């Protein structure tokens, strides 16, 4: 997921691109589907999801007798084909994820929980990677108004619990139990550092109520 709100700078995008290349190189195994979603004013729209399917090329089966050297050469050529297919898929993912779009005036992040839950129905396991400052600003919930940044952990947990109930009422049952791990990559120098004191408890609660059993790994660029 990529934040497309007005608060994201070009410098952040360059660092995010570098990080994503390393992430895909490490975790994108054979038969992997990647879903790219924007974080904007229409985050939970049905059209806000682009699928990329990576399947390793099929091996060619030969019935003729081959020497050991021929077998080794065939294997080298096959692995090269696999590498090129993987690189081409990763390039399309990165191009789509970081395509320039008009900056959104809203940052609807928590709204993504419902479509993620829907997508998970078709998979056995998944991982989630989010590039955003995670400062929610939408009609559903706005972190920059009221008592934000959250004054304490209890406040963050109480608001998250209330918001999760609202999300449940707006959609089918939310189930995030198939997620193996969640990574959040925030700007290195966020404009609102104070938000990161108690804000993580809000998202921890949202994912925990959604039956995610892991932790959220927060890191800066």
State the main characteristics:
15% strand, 221 residues, two-stranded parallel ribbon, 5 helices, alpha/beta
Describe the structure.
The protein has helices at residues 10-27, 68-97, 113-120, 153-170, 199-209; strands at residues 2-3, 32-36, 38-39, 50-54, 126-131, 179-186, 216-220. The longest helix has 30 residues, at 68-97. Helix 4 (153-170) packs parallel to helix 5. The protein has 221 residues and is an alpha/beta fold. The radius of gyration is 20 Å and the shape is elongated. It is 38% helix and 15% strand. The strands form 3 sheets. Strands 5-6-7 form a 3-stranded parallel sheet, with helices on one face. Strands 1-3 form a two-stranded parallel ribbon. The model has no long low-confidence stretch (mean pLDDT 90). Strand 6 (179-186), helix 5 (199-209) and strand 7 form a beta-alpha-beta unit.
Number of H/I helices: 5
Uncertain residue ranges:
none
Based on helices, strands and strand pairing, what is the structural class? alpha/beta
- From the spread of the alpha carbons, the general shape counts as elongated
Nearest-integer average pLDDT: 90
Major sheet details: 3 strands, parallel
- Strand percent estimate: 5-15%
Radius of gyration, whole Å: 20 Å
- The main sheet orders its strands as 5-6-7
Tell me the span between the first and last alpha carbons: 15 Å
Number of strands: 7
The helical percent reads 25-40%
Query: Which series of helices and strands comes N to C?
Result: EHEEEHHEHEHE
């Amino acid at each position: 997921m990529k934040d497309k709100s007005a608060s994201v700078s070009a410098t952040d995008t360059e660092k995010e691109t570098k990080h994503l290349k390393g992430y895909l190189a490490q975790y994108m195994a054979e038969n992997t589907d990647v879903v790219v979603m924007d974080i904007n004013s229409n985050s939970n729209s049905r059209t806000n999801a682009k699928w990329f399917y990576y399947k390793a090329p099929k091996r060619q089966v030969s019935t003729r007798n081959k020497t050991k050297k021929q077998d080794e050469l065939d294997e080298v050529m096959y692995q090269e084909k696999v590498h090129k297919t993987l690189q081409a898929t990763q390039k399309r993912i990165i191009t789509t994820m970081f395509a320039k779009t008009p900056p959104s005036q809203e940052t609807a992040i928590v709204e993504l929980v419902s479509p993620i839950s829907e997508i998970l129905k078709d998979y056995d396991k998944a991982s989630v990677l989010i590039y955003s400052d995670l400062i929610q600003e939408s009609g559903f919930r706005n972190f920059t108004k009221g008592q934000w940044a959250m004054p304490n952990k209890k406040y963050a947990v109480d608001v998250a619990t209330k918001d999760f109930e609202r999300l449940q009422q707006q959609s089918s049952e939310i189930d995030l139990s198939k997620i193996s791990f969640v990574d959040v990559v925030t700007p290195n120098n966020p404009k609102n550092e104070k938000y990161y004191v108690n804000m993580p408890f809000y998202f921890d609660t949202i994912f925990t109520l959604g039956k995610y059993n892991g932790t959220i790994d927060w890191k800066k660029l």
